[in-house]
Structure formats: C-alpha cells, structure tokens
Amino acid sequence: MKIIDQKYRSWLKELKSRIRQSQIKAAIKVNSELLCLYWDLGRDIVLRKMDAEWGSGFFGQLSKELRAEFPDMQGFSETNLKYCKRFFEFYIQDESGLCQLSANSDKNGAIIRDIAIRQQLADEFESNPIFQIPWFHNVQIFTKCKSIKEAIFYVQKTIENGWSRAVLMNFLEADLYSAQGKAITNFKAKLPKPQSDLALQITKDPYNLDFLTIRGKFDEKELGKNLLEHLSKFLLELGSGFSFIGNQYKLSVGGEDFYVDLLFYHTRLHCYIAIELKTVVFKAEFSGKLGFYVSVIDDKLKTKGDNPTIGILICKSKNETVVKYALQGVKNPIGVSDYQIMRSLPKDFRSSLPSVEEIEKELEKSAKR
C-alpha cells in the first residue's frame, strides 16, 4: 500500500506541476493575443494615418464605438488607443529614433516593411519577450525608453526577475540600463570567460541608495547598518542572484580578526561576493584591503565547487584613473563603483521654486526681447 501511495504522490506532484505550467502558458497565450491585438490596432492607425485624416476627435470616436460593441472588454479607452499607436511606432523606429514608415508615403511599401518587421521581432509573436509581459509593463517601457535596445533590456529583466510594475518603474527611474555593468573592474584580466562577462553584468555604477534614511554625515558603520535595515531594497538594487550571508563577517587570520562589511553568495556565478563600503573618495589602499579579504575568503570559505570570490567596493566617489592603476596591482577580481543618495526636496523649499509654466513664460519673454 505504501508503494502505491508513494507512486500516487509522485504522480500527483508531477500532475500539479503540469497543471501549473499549463496555467502559465495559458496566461502568456492570453496576454500575447491581447498585445498582438494592440499591435495590429496601432499598426492600422499608423498605416492608415487615421488620426491625421479624421481629425483630433478620432481617438474619442473610436473609443466610444469599440466600448459600445465590446462593453465587457477593457483596453479601449482613448488613452489606451493612443498607447497602441505609440507601441507600434516605438518598435518600428530606426536607429535614429525615427518611425521607419514616416518617410514612406507608399502604403503598399509600408505594409511590406511592416511584415518584415513582424518577422524580425519573432516568427511567432507569442514567443517574443515583448509579448510575454503585461501590457502596462510595456507601456512604462516604451514611453520611457529612448531606444529599442534599452526597451528590450527592461523587457528581458522583467521576465528574468518577475518584476512587478512598481519595481520596473523604480528601475526605469534609476536608469538601470545606463548603470548596469559600468563599474571599473579588473574582471577580464583576473577571471576566465564566461565568468568575467557574467561578473561584469552584476555590477552597477552608481548604486542608487535613495531608500536609505540616513541624515547628515555618516560613516561606513552607519551606512552598513542602514543598508541592513533596508536589506530587501538593497538586494533589489544589487540585482537577482545575491544571497545574503552576513554583515561585519569575521575572518580570523594569524590570531587577528578582520571584518567584511557585507558578504553575499551569488547563486548564478557560484561564488562569494565581498562588499566593502566607503563614505569617502576612493583611495588606492582600499583595493589592497579588499583584495586581502577576497584571498582569505577563497582560502577559508570557498569550496571545490565555487568559483573565485569577487570583491566590490562601493564608495562615495572615485577618480577613474586612480582606480584603474590601483586594480592593476591587485591579483583578485575587484570592481569599484560609486553610490548616490538622491534626496527629495523639502516641501517648503520646493514651493519656493518656479513652476514649469513660470519658467516657460520667462523663456518667452526672453525670446521676445
């Protein structure tokens, strides 16, 4: 009976897994179908130049008629119909950022190019990452990104990490695209491929620590303590794969104790990552100290299945030339980045600043003069 019960439990577990996978596939299918509809709707509006030919009331009229015909269906508001147009226009822009169809008045030629673009995006729309994330994730991306390359970066990150819309918006505002992989490192010289490339991808410059509640001057100890109080947000800023080991992690060497500010294990790189925090400008000796910690961790914590430990130094600011020379003399893989803490303006100070309208009026006066 136990054998039958075990077989049943094993089959039931597999069955549940298949059902979950089918639910996910069904959700993706429904989402992709909806986005394909929005794409085709935007395509028709652009190719037929409907809003240009039928006037400013076109979107309002179309919204009214579609809502009347499909009262139970969401997504036919005037605003959303305009987003459909922008959705199509964004992904058919060329490298200069211009819509590829705008320069061609030949409708047949434009349609042929549209077909080619669809094939370029994916043989099947539902297999393209753009059509695998929710519509309003897409809206945030194509309204805020400057290029298709940047947009695809955020689309893939959303899929990879399961970002909510709020998390996506946070990374868009922090300009993760520009920051990721920008730290000054010696990874290519100290790590074999592909680990060197993967290690570079997990770094940022700068790190956005806007979530901290520190006020006034603070030292490394206070910075580390505040990061721990907001550990979930700090892990989000670091990126996927970071598993927290400890803070002020003790390393005993030759009868002396040394302390690493923050120690992590990266589940994708399969290595320890030691992070040192500095609230001052980078100094050459910082890299030597962090290199020492990395060597000790490799000797005392690293196992046979682990890759070489990586050190990341996050400081207030840095001179890039000084950093590059300092890293040349270190045998361990180390990256150096800045951090930034953007402060919101106090309400009383903010109210004393001129509004956009006031600035525009002043510019108009200056132009007239």
Question: Care to give the gist of this entry?
Answer:
The protein is built from 17 helices and 7 strands. It is of the alpha/beta class.
Can you tell me about this structure?
The chain has helices at 2-47, 50-54, 58-69, 78-91, 107-121, 135-144, 148-161, 165-173, 176-179, 187-190, 195-201, 220-229, 231-238, 284-300, 320-328, 347-350, 356-368, and strands spanning 184-185, 207-208, 242-253, 256-266, 271-281, 310-317, 334-340. By secondary structure, it is an alpha/beta fold. Strand 4 (256-266) and strand 5 (271-281) form a beta hairpin. The model is unreliable at 95-113 and 343-360 (pLDDT under 50).
What labels would you give this structure?
369 residues, alpha/beta, seven-stranded mixed β-sheet, globular, 2 domains, single chain, Trna Endonuclease, Chain: A, domain 1
The Cα radius of gyration reads 27 Å
The profile of the biggest β sheet is:
7 strands, mixed
Number of domains: 2
* Structural class label: alpha/beta
Give the total of beta strands: 7
**Mean pLDDT score:** 80
What ranges have pLDDT less than 50 throughout 5 or more consecutive residues?
Answer: 95-113, 343-360
Order of helices and strands: HHHHHHHHHEHHEHHEEEHEHEHH
Number of helices: 17
Query: How many angstroms separate the termini?
Result: 95 Å
> Proportion of β residues?
5-15%
